[in-house]
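Listing S7. Sequence submitted for prediction.
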Amino acid sequence: MNIQLQRWIDRWVGIPLCAAVSGLNAVTRALRGPSREVAATTAPRAIVVILLSEMGSLVLAHDMFARLKQRYPGAELHALLFRKNREILDLMKVVDPAHVHTVHDKSLSGLLSSLWKAIAELRRARVDVAIDCELFSRISSLLSFASGAPVRVGFHRHTQEGLYRGSHINRPVPYNPYHHISAQFLALARAIDSTAVPKSKLPMVGTNKPPPHVQLDGALVQGIAQRLAQDFPAIAGKPLVLVYPGGGILPIRAWPLASYTTLCEGLVADGCAVAVIGLKDDQALAQQLVANVNQAYPAGPVIDLTGYTRSISELLALFHVARLLVTNDGGPGQFAALTPIWTLMLFGPETPALYAPHTPKCHSFYSQWPCSPCLTAYNHRSSYCDGDNQCLKVIAPATVLAKARECLAETPVTA
């Protein structure tokens, strides 16, 4: 399903369902009393983390998973997410694969059937705690209730108008737009047994620890290197730079194609090989970028790798082979934090203050325009921009190229 349809369903179906569930929750709690909830918070048997849609956010949630394991070593840790995002979670090894429950979002029928199955699995697991990591999504809050968990943690609007998603989240954590999202995920985990008001009023803890690198099979990395050498012999012996010019489901996040063209021309002039990465849907954009650069530098090795990697594992292997990644805000920049590659990320509609990867090998560009960031939890990440994303357009290719040269000078050549 496309993102607009998902938002429509979340609003017009989610609001009445949240109201109904909140009423049901109030009645059942009055009849049952709070005893079960208190018991669950003292020694949870099983915890489910609901983080459906954002693949990159799984990387930023690493501290939260670590906190849950440390604080509740006897509890089973489960995860509920979209099926397309599962591989990155498995690579991070923060949840037992047997306890990962997936939802299929390609069609409405697939969504409903997979939701029913996931809810049944969570109820059989008898989860005590559900942590809803989505930013004011109604479907995720409903899933926390449907899981059967007596303790339900999630972000709350407090007194703000709109963003209604019921009152069945019984451990509400105020969303704080001034803190990095990883710190807010950690606040959700700490709210399980918090007695403070609000639940997140707790002593500060460090949240800037980089996630551990994913340990890939050496044969996988070598296989990607050999495939590149066989398929694109022109890049042999040149430092490889990857660029990701696509905006994914949010095109407003994309640095202009003309800026990427100028950057790539400078890299090729420096003797680098440039590869454009992305999904198959990004192929038309990639081919245009390749054509633009090859017109100025016919002998320059600029190649199209959109759809080339067949899995997240292969993409991470490609990051081991390359020297540098230049990317818009999105999944590839977050995945790169799991590898040794240097990364340059371009922000504008989003802010690095909330979403920059936790790694010393990432540099973020951000122009701080008065209207930026415009994608927030408060507008369901639907920008009011007319498409003229000046916050990104004013980031000069020469500035990015200068930083790219610094990173390449610091990065040793890999075999």
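Caption to Listing S7: primary sequence and predicted structure tokens for the chain studied. The chain has two domains: 3-190, 218-409. The mean pLDDT is 92.
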